[in-house]
Amino acid sequence: MILIKSFAQKVLLLGFLFFSYISLNAQEGKQLFQSHCQTCHSLDKNLTGPALRGFLERGPWADKANLYAWIHNPAGFMAKDPYTQGLKQQFGVIMQAFPDLTTQQIDAIADYVATAPPPGGDKTTTTTTGAPAEDNSGRNAIIFGVISIVLAIVALILMQVNNNLKKLSDDKEGILRPEPVPFWRNKVYIALLALVFFIVGGYFVGKGAINLGRQQSYQPDQPIHYSHKVHAGINQINCLYCHGNAWESKHAAIPSLNICMNCHKAITTYEKGPKLYDEEGKEINGTAEIQKLHQYAGYEPGKPWDPSKAKPIEWVKIHNLPDHVFFSHAQHVNAGKVACQTCHGNIQEMDVVSQQAELSMGWCINCHRQTKVNFFNGKDSSGNKFYSIYEKFHNDIASGKMDSVTVKDIGGLECVKCHY
């Protein structure tokens, strides 16, 4: 009987831990993919970098040691690997290094990429009609959670059955034993439950406190349905045409009605573009949205436009930083040559804009640790001349002591760089 009890408990405990591990590993992999990979990679199509689905079957990644080395130090790994050298020639950029990712986290990302739903089964994809497809990731997590709870209940029932059988056996043999302590009065059970509650509660309280003020995935309704996919994606309108302030000032700024009306005095109907859908899958009337713009501008098609009749559009701001944080778009976009997609995600594919990055202090610091400075090269006059003042780094690069300089090397981790 004791052997049966021990075996049953071990099997149920292993099953519980297995299903819990699968659920947590899949969720962690998805979160890591979204925070570290999604700005440059898609699962099923090439973006800034190659599509990742099935990547373990390509190149040298079957050996996980190569994968870890590549993610931790792409430049060092590429120097002796022809496959990654070909990737740089194809896409024109080298992958950003992620030395902070552990091997377990990299494995979690690889597991998510291998098990993620195919096109049509994820919320970020669309159906053949163009409407957003159903997201199954939450449903899978619920299924694993239910299975784990059922296994835990079965384990408790079997333990209770085992105790009752042992009591019957002792009674038959005349062995006296004290009355069992009820579950709710058993100090061991109470202590275990309190410990579990403290650990789980502390985890969620700490995670919630850390995320206070962050708005990742924030996607408010706007007064006009403006599709970046149509404007920046299909029509290839440069980001700086509408957000020109990003090139020369702290704020990217919201474009004025003058910018919109440069095109929409002539474009008064939406006829040739793809169908538009909101996040609930409802079709949007593009012509009606252009008419809303005309109402704000005080414009009647076919008549001269009088800008004095215009009233501002009350757009809802999506990306917000704390008041004590200094951030300059010009320093990043102009001097640093940082692409808009690095922080804002694949904006050219979004019908409805949402905040993609967490915009946390750790997220910014990791970027400063990994982003290389666009140093001025006197031989071909390429790069940013501002960085020519760092003579020591230029000499170190020329002598071979350093192969590149990152933002952290020029003070990118100093507190006063970002905080008033």
TrEMBL record:
Parts of the chain that traverse the membrane: 141-159, 188-206
Key words, A-Z: Heme, Iron, Membrane, Metal-binding, Transmembrane, Transmembrane helix
Pfam families registered for this protein in UniProt: Cytochrom_C
PROSITE patterns documented for this protein: CYTC
Residue ranges of domain Cytochrome c in the record: 24-117
SUPFAM superfamilies attached to this UniProt entry: Cytochrome c (SSF46626), Multiheme cytochromes (SSF48695)
InterPro entries documented for this protein: Cyt_c-like_dom (IPR009056), Cyt_c-like_dom_sf (IPR036909), Multihaem_cyt_sf (IPR036280)
Molecular function GO terms recorded: electron transfer activity; heme binding; metal ion binding
Name recorded for this polypeptide: Cytochrome C
Organism: Flavisolibacter tropicus
